[in-house]
Amino acid sequence: MTETLLELLPDYGAPFLGLVTLLSCLALPVPASLFMMAAGGFAAAGDLSLGLTILAALIGAVLGDQIGFLLGRGGSGVLQRLERRGGKQALALARATALTRERGNIAVFLSRWLLSPLGPYVNYAAGAARMRWHRFSLASLSGETVWVAIYIGLGAGAMDQFDTLWPMISDMLGLLAAVAVALLLVLRLGHLVQIHRQAHPRRRRADRG
């Protein structure tokens, strides 16, 4: 299916890429990073406009973030549906919620590109947590700019080695996801320790005595 969609990219160009990045930011299973790399390659070959490609990918990603944020804030029930489904989506949502509570706008920024598997769920969690819209939007725009620049730049600069590079990048994304899980576990442990200390202040003073 991915190969079929990639074949549509040269024909439908930048608007199609914008739609792909938008859908990926709503947790739909669309390999947006792969499409951006391919679009970068097509732009380097002269089949697409590089400027329009970058702009469309960025607009689609930012719009997807805004929609996810508004769905989370508006009480649409999307969070409840994800939790009821269980499995990977519910786990990703739980991780994203913990990360958003701990790190706020930094979590939004990093989840656009470094921890991108959590990105869509951070959008929902940030909205539900009533994060200030301007803080979310600024972090979203800056993070998505990094994401778009990295993958379109890779595609444009390494068009001849695209088939070789993509498996390596896929492995890297998997590693980043694993690192994200470990980081969230550490943050969660620190939060639990803090709660325990606040709940038992007398015991702590007695131990010092």
TrEMBL record:
InterPro entries: DedA_domain, VTT_dom. The keyword Cell cycle does not apply. Residues 30-156 form the VTT domain. Pfam families: VTT_dom. Keywords: Cell membrane, Membrane, Transmembrane, Transmembrane helix. The chain crosses the membrane at residues 12-30, 42-63, 138-159, 165-187. Signal peptide: none annotated. It comes from the Bacteria. It is a multi-pass membrane protein. Coiled coil: none annotated. The keyword Magnesium does not apply. This is DedA family protein. It comes from Thalassovita mangrovi.
